Amino acid sequence: MTLNRLIEKRISEALTEDRARRDITTQALIPRAQKGEALVLAREGGVLCGTMAAKRCFTLLDRGIQYEARLKDGERFAPGTLLATIRGRLCSILSAERVAMNLLARLSGIATLTAAFVEKVRLYGTRIYDTRKTTPLWREMEKYAVRMGGGQNHRSDLAGAYFIKDNHVDARGGMKQVLDRFFNAARLRRPVIVEVRSLKEARIAADYPVDLLLLDNMSPGMIKGIMEKIKPRCDMEISGGIHLGNVERYARIGIPRISIGALTHSAKSLDISLEYHHSNTLKLNGRNFN
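Below the sequence we write its predicted structure tokens.
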């Protein structure tokens, strides 16, 4: 991944928030000229994501820092894996540590959770999508993490696609009223997504030139019934109430797309830590790392 200027700006702001250039403890204890080495270690297994972001945390603070990644984003790792080696001024390494590890752990957690969902539905050809339920200002990175876990991205923002949701429908008096108004508007772009909550709404929406019907918070039986009774000229997607325990049951229906907000709003950060390397060799899980 190549970090764009916006992401670099966010990382710089995160370092400023942590006052990484005013680390009073490190400045009191570590001479600025002292060089050192640190290791980024996985305390649990998962899918790696955020390598470039973590590296940039250190190099924005100190251009002399060398960050050697041992794995690429999207690769799986086991507990005890050495993920990266960092060399340079020890004070800079310690001052950038928390922001870098927070990003690496958070993004790897999203990638790992996404990969778990993708694996559950692999046999059925169902695609797993994210939503806009992301951390404000970090959406681009979190959606990147979804891709690294094997998932796919929904629209990136409110201007990325038309998405008529339940509140739009209720605010305009019903599905037919909102779709009549919408398709009478001039110069509409594609795609057009419509969220439906019942068979009745699905029947109405299917009569319009929509690209995707989103079946929201429905049971597998209800979804199957809609798929059997309505054969629209558009794709179908389900969302709402989907978790690792039931996603396979939904995929068996034959639905092509499942969108899951939990990929980004409920992913657990992985346990990834930075450790000062004070000897020539570190032994982890029976392996030596030089």
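The CA atoms of residues 132 and 139 lie 8 Å apart.
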